[in-house]
Design a protein that fits this description.
CATH architecture of one domain: Up-down Bundle
Oligomer: single chain
CATH class of one domain: Mainly Alpha
Strand content: under 5%
Structural class: mainly alpha
Order of helices and strands: HHHHHHHHHHHHHHHHHH
CATH superfamily of one domain: MFS general substrate transporter like domains
Largest sheet: none
Radius of gyration: 25 Å
CATH topology of one domain: Growth Hormone, Chain: A
Shape: globular
Helix content: 55-70%
């Protein structure tokens, strides 16, 4: 009897390892390259914006096809959809590892991996329910979710290590190997029988993908085109930026999608979703919480690594190390709270989590100024150095004390004259040089950066002075 119980426990652990590894892999792809954007862009001969587009497009494809992927699993069976998704995902990782340019990178990373993830992630949820009894499902779901949190935490460090000591391409080679292992272990997973009466709503699939795609693409282009008023040189539609029209148009398409789904259900036909589910207040609250949680979390793990690697010019491994405190706290919270407080109220945990996230963002905003260095990503977001203003210097105060440069006093302060896209960088460096004219110019960064080897060196976020003290 004990031997049978031990075998059942080992089989359950193996199934859980398979599903958790899949969740880890799907989540890893959205964070592992954030610290290596500059390196990837240089390697394939594109810009940082191009790599950002590939990363965002992966998430977009996965999100727009997630509902369809769940429906495909209902038609084919969850295990078969899971295996097909793994094969597509592995093919995308292999293509990305060999990508010579941005086009191939988008095909492999964004499209193929996005489609594979859209098939895998809905199947994971269903396979947990079919392989574990009701009393063990909360623990299984918690461990699968923890695997995703570990991926978010470990992604920047893994990407930094591979990019610094080998190549970013080896990350995707490793993903191919992990997919092969997952496929070999998936044979032990118990499948759910397919629904013989299920049909795929092609019209609903197209409407949902089009509506979500228009909204997300509009938001992505808002920095280039302007949100409502067009930026100089940007296209205009009826006197406004295309962004606002894309967002409004996407909202209209989604309303048509909901109308279409109601129409099919009223006619007794299969639909992608039942709009009546959204009338459940508990479900709406949970979906809203997930939306803002992932919105804020993805923003932190995307914008901050980009600032460290591109604006400050830190290496991929240095960027990953500076993100390590946030990664550790995220991992401890995801894995430790269910174990230490198993009877804690989920509503209370969610509320405390949002309060902590809000406090961290407020501290981060309060710490931002023109001379903020890498320390802002380390001490401010962990909360250990909350309230300590000595982490960042005061170039703005020094600038206010100095006089305007006579050469540029006719230009407004908000104009970006150095072409770097970093507002205020040229103004600060140029005016300090013109006011004092040191024989050996030093970077006007906070002294805290000089302690990291920056004394007497101009950091990438500022301009290096050219001949006669003029900035290049």
């Amino acid at each position: 009897m004990s031997t049978t119980a031990e075998r059942a426990a080992a089989a359950a652990a193996l199934v859980l390892l398979t599903l958790a590894s899949s969740q880890f892999l799907m989540t890893l792809d959205s964070s592992v390259m954030n610290v290596s954007i500059a390196t990837v862009a240089k390697d394939i001969g594109t810009t940082v914006t191009g790599v950002q587009t590939a990363i965002t497009f992966y998430t977009l494809v996965m999100a727009t096809l997630m509902i369809t992927g769940g429906k495909v699993g209902q038609i084919l069976g969850r295990k078969r959809a899971f295996s097909i998704g793994c094969v597509i995902y592995g093919a995308g990782s292999f293509t990305t590892a060999l990508a010579p340019n941005l086009t191939v990178l988008i095909i492999g990373w964004s499209i193929l991996e996005g489609v594979g993830a859209a098939l895998i992630m809905p199947a994971i949820v269903a396979l947990v329910a079919s392989n574990f009894p009701r009393d063990q499902r909360p623990r299984a779901y918690g461990l699968v979710a923890s695997a995703g949190a570990i991926a978010v935490a470990a992604g920047p460090l893994i990407g930094g290590l591979f990019t610094t000591y080998a190549s970013w391409r080896w990350v995707f080679v490793g993903e191919v190997l992990v997919v092969v292992v997952i496929l070999s272990l998936a044979r032990r997973v118990v499948d759910t029988p397919p629904d013989s009466g299920a049909r795929l709503d092609l019209m609903g699939t197209g409407l949902s993908a089009l509506g979500l795609g228009m909204i997300v693409y509009g938001i992505l282009r808002s920095g280039t085109w302007g949100f409502v008023q067009p930026i100089a040189g940007a296209p205009t539609w009826l006197g406004l930026s295309p962004v606002i029209w894309l967002i409004l148009g996407g909202g209209v398409v989604l309303r048509i999608f909901m109308w279409w789904e109601r129409r099919r259900l009223a006619g007794g036909q299969a639909a992608l979703i039942d709009p009546a589910m959204l009338q459940n207040r508990i479900l709406r609250g949970g979906l809203t919480s997930f939306l803002f949680q992932y919105l804020l979390q993805a923003g932190l793990f995307f914008v901050v690594p980009l600032y460290l690697s591109v604006a400050l010019g830190l290496s991929a491994i240095a960027t990953g190390v500076r993100l390590l405190p946030l990664s550790i706290t995220l991992l401890l919270a995801a894995a430790g709270i269910p174990k230490v407080f198993p009877d804690a109220s989920p509503r209370r945990v969610v509320r405390l989590g949002f309060m902590a996230l809000f406090a961290g963002i407020v501290i981060l905003l309060a710490s931002l100024n023109a001379g903020a260095g890498a320390e802002i990503a380390r001490c401010r977001r962990v909360g250990v150095a909350a309230g300590k203003r000595d982490c960042v210097g005061g170039p703005r105060r020094a600038e206010r004390r100095g006089r305007r440069c006579p050469e540029h006093r006719h230009q407004p302060r908000s104009v970006d004259r150095d072409g770097t896209g970093r507002r205020g960088a040229h103004r600060h460096a140029h005016h300090v040089v013109h006011q004092r004219r040191p024989a050996q110019p030093r970077c006007p960064c906070p002294s805290v950066l000089e302690g990291a080897g920056g004394a007497g060196r101009w950091h990438p976020v500022h301009l290096r002075p050219g001949p006669q003290g003029r900035p290049r």
